[in-house]
């Protein structure tokens, strides 16, 4: 008999609004938002094939990495979680110390083929248990700076190809702080929402577009430049809209926002209009109650959806997966010791999952610090999360790590092939 799930989370996470964490110049397409704060227009940049594609999957609400990738070799884990610990004999892809939660079974083929890896005990340089503040700190990735420029925007800024098509936040219609900054990007609730509102089959004379072009075609300032950039981006995005929605290679996505978003990512990759950075948010991982067991609970539900959606993405992509790398991370982890409500409170260190191109997979990376069993025990951070991301941007994009992650004292992780 399991407790009745409450679905409760802390008020801060429930109230988080990230709309103020980015800047944009134009909003055009219903629920879609096209942003450009520079004078470079998409029509001037044109389109080009993507060199590689980075998908950043944010597990919102502070996922419990100790449940997703279980340190079964640390006896303190089982002492601290008499009800919530995942039994060692239920773990998948198990080595002498770690194993995957059984809900991650759809990802085991990626693991076995060397295309999925985990890096444990990662996180911010110092604990930050506020969802809002930690999200912004993780996504700015520039400690001490007052500039509102995210690490993905800095990555985009290294390329002279300055098109809004280069970066896309998909699924919510808003963009994370990681994309905020001077480089143009897009955000949309779905692929088909990248359109000009009113420019449809009923607008037979195409008056909507022509009127906007007439008003803004020669307008000075960032707003005029943004509108022109957005109009050109809608046109240049057409090959993606022409790409069939039906998944390829027998892929089946789970129902829900994450499945829809990753199906859109596959369609985007096939359309190939030069998008190289995609962000996707997933779930409510803020589980102060009802984390549950391998048989019931909120963690099993969220982990199952995430695993099925990621596995479907790489199946759908087929050979195109050779250019796609996915990184899954969360703003912080959970406490080691379970609470009285079958839940876990805000913690510190966490696990990062990496899948796809360039990943040194089938392995657990990182340095394990050991667990404590006091009420306030944390998984301590031994690897700065930026060191993991640094390997990704350097190996996949040839990026300057000091530019993308200013001030980083980099550690060698070994999770990406040089």
From TrEMBL:
It comes from the Bacteria. InterPro entries: DUF1501, TAT_signal. This is DUF1501 domain-containing protein. It comes from Nocardioides donggukensis.
């Amino acid at each position: 008999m399991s407790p009745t799930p409450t679905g409760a989370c802390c008020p801060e996470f429930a109230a988080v609004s990230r709309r103020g964490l980015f800047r944009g110049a134009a909003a055009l397409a219903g629920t879609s938002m096209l942003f450009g704060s520079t004078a470079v227009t998409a029509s001037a940049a044109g389109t080009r094939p993507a060199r590689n594609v980075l998908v950043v999957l944010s597990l919102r609400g502070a996922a419990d990495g100790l449940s997703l990738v279980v340190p079964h070799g640390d006896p303190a884990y089982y002492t601290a979680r008499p009800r919530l610990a995942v039994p060692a004999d239920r773990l998948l892809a198990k080595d002498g110390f770690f194993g995957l939660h059984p809900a991650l079974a759809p990802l085991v083929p990626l693991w076995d083929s060397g295309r999925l890896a985990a890096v444990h005990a990662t996180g911010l340089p110092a604990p930050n248990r506020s969802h809002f503040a930690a999200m912004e700190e993780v996504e700015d990735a520039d400690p001490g700076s007052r500039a509102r420029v995210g690490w993905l925007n800095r990555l985009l800024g290294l390329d002279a190809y300055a098109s809004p098509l280069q970066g896309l936040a998909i699924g919510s219609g808003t963009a994370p702080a990681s994309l905020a900054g001077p480089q143009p990007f897009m955000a949309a609730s779905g692929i088909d929402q990248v359109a000009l509102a009113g420019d449809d089959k009923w607008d037979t004379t195409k008056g909507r577009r022509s009127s906007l072009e007439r008003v803004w075609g020669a307008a000075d300032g960032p707003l005029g430049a943004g509108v022109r950039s957005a109009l050109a981006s809608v046109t240049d995005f057409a090959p993606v809209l022409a790409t069939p929605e039906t998944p390829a290679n027998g892929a089946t996505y789970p129902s829900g926002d994450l499945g829809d978003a990753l199906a859109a990512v596959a369609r985007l990759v096939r359309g190939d209009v030069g998008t190289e950075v995609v962000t996707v948010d997933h779930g409510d991982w803020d589980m102060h109650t009802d984390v549950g067991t391998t048989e019931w609970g909120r963690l099993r539900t969220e982990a199952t959806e995430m695993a099925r959606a990621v596995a479907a993405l790489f199946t759908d992509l087929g050979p195109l997966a050779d250019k796609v790398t996915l990184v899954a991370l969360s703003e912080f982890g959970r406490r080691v010791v379970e609470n009285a409500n079958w839940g876990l409170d805000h913690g510190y260190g966490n696990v990062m999952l990496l899948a796809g191109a360039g990943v040194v997979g089938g392995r657990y990376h990182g340095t394990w610090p050991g667990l404590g069993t006091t009420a306030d025990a944390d998984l301590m951070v031994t690897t700065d999360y930026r060191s993991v991301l640094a390997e990704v941007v350097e190996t996949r994009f040839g990026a300057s790590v000091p530019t993308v992650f200013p001030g980083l004292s980099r550690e060698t992780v070994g999770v990406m092939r040089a």
